[in-house]
C-alpha cells in the first residue's frame, strides 16, 4: 500500500512562518489599523476577525495606559522626594529663625534691664555648664580681657545667678547661687530680716541666720541686702517655701526656691564692682522686685 506524504515542502514552511510573523507583528504594532480593515471586510470573515483584533487592541491600549501610569507615578514620586527635601530645608530654616528671634528677644530684655538698673554691667553668654556632685557652675564666653574678675556678681532680669570664682583670658567660671559653697547676703523683703543665702545639695537655696523672733513665713521673697560686695540691694534671689526652727537655737532658717532657673540661663549680666556700693539699689523699673524698705509689722 502506498503511503501518502503529508510533509510540507521546506520553502512553503518558511513562507508560512514569515507570513505568520508579519501577521503577529501587524496585530501587536498596528491593532487599530487592522481592526478598521477587518471591519471594512464584509460578511462572516470580517465579523470573525474583528473579535480577536478588538481583544488585542484593548490589551495593547491597557498595556499602554499602564505604562503611562507607571511613568507618571515615577515622575510624581521624584517630585514628592524633591518636595520632601524642600520641606526639611524649610523646617530647618524656620527653626533657625525662631531661635534667632528668641535670642533677640532675650537680649533686648537684657539690654533694657541693663539700661534701667542704674549700675554698670557687661553682657555675656553661657557656653558651658557643670552641675556635678562637687560644684554647680556655668562658664561664660568672656574673661579677664573683658575686665571680669573673681567675686563679680552675675545676674539676669529675673534675679541672681551667682558670682564669678575663676577667670581666664577669655572665659569665666560662675558659682551658682544653688551651690553649697556660695554665700550671698540677703534679706526677707517683707520683714527686712537679714541673713546669708547658701546653696543646698538638692539644687535649691537656704536663708540662714534669721533672727529667732522674726515672723518670716512661706511666700516671703528674699532679695540681696547689698551689704556684701558684688550685688546691689534689691535683686531677687528666691521665695521662701518653708521655715525651720530648731529648739533651743539662736536662729531660724528658711528654704528657698531660686527665682532664676540656672539650667535655662543662656545670657547673663556681670556687675562691675567699681559701680556697686552698699547703698546702691536696683531701680524699681528695672526689676520685678520692689526694693523700697518696709517697716516691720
Short characterization:
The chain has 297 residues and is α+β, with helices and mostly antiparallel strands.
Task: Describe, in plain words, how this protein is organized in 3D.
With 297 residues, the chain is an alpha+beta fold. The chain has three helices and twelve strands, in the order H-H-H-E-E-E-E-E-E-E-E-E-E-E-E. It folds into two domains: 10-117; 121-286, Thrombin, subunit H, CATH 2.40.10.340. Strand 6 and strand 7 (194-199) form a beta hairpin. The longest helix has 75 residues, at 43-117.
Number of E-type strands: 12
Relevant CATH superfamily of the largest domain: Rod shape-determining protein MreC, domain 1
Strand content: 25-35%
Q: Please trace the helix and strand order, writing H or E for each element.
A: HHHEEEEEEEEEEEE
CATH topology type of the largest domain: Thrombin, subunit H
**What does the overall shape look like?**
elongated
Radius of gyration: 44 Å
Q: Helix tally?
A: 3
Read across the widest sheet, the strand sequence of neighbours is 1-2-5-4-3-12
Helix content: 25-40%
- What is the CATH domain class of the largest domain? Mainly Beta
CATH architecture of the largest domain: Beta Barrel
Feature tags:
297 residues, alpha+beta, Thrombin, subunit H, six-stranded antiparallel β-barrel, 3 helices, elongated, disordered C terminus
List the helices and strands and how they pair.
Elements (H helix, E strand, L loop, with lengths): L9 H20 L1 H10 L2 H75 L3 E11 L4 E5 L12 E4 L2 E9 L4 E5 L6 E6 L5 E6 L5 E7 L9 E4 L11 E10 L5 E8 L8 E5 L26
Helix pairs in contact: 2-3
